[in-house]
Automatic annotation (TrEMBL):
Any single biological process term in GO: proton motive force-driven ATP synthesis
Protein name from the UniProt record: ATP-synt_G domain-containing protein
Keywords in alphabetical order: ATP synthesis, CF(0), Hydrogen ion transport, Ion transport, Membrane, Mitochondrion, Transport
Family: Belongs to the ATPase g subunit family.
Record GO cellular component, one term: mitochondrial membrane
Gene source species: Cephalotus follicularis (Albany pitcher plant)
Length: 122
């Protein structure tokens, strides 16, 4: 156990040395390549303005998203009406999509419980 701790400690030391050596140049390079996204002057007021713009822009996009949702639901209704013409591939894709939704639900439940599994005596 102590040897694993020493290995972990040496790996952490190597990683911190790497960050100390190359971190500044990476940071400067990152800012330089993305300078078109940086707002000048970088003040608290500018950050507050941008956050409000983002919030209200998202709020304004809700009607369009709602309309898109209705179009998608109408498409699903049409598929359900014509389900006798449904191909095996389409049914398989729908089943996989449903399975994926269920898996994300289960993962969210596990994360919400603090990564604990309930119902098992361990």
């Amino acid at each position: 156990m102590a040897s694993k701790f020493q290995q972990l400690q040496s790996k952490a030391c190597q990683a911190s040395q790497l960050v100390a050596k190359h971190g500044t140049s990476y940071y400067k390079n990152l800012l330089e390549t993305n300078k078109q996204y940086i707002q000048e002057p970088p003040t608290v007021e500018k950050c507050n303005l941008l956050s409000k713009q983002l919030f209200y822009t998202r709020l304004a996009s809700i009607p369009h998203r709602y309309e898109t949702l209705h179009k998608e639901l109408d498409y699903v209704k049409q598929l359900w009406k014509n389900r006798h013409e449904l191909k095996v591939e389409d049914a398989g894709i729908a089943a996989l999509f449903g399975l994926e939704c269920f898996a994300w639900f289960c993962a969210g439940e596990i994360v919400g419980r603090g990564f604990t599994f309930t119902g098992y005596d361990v």
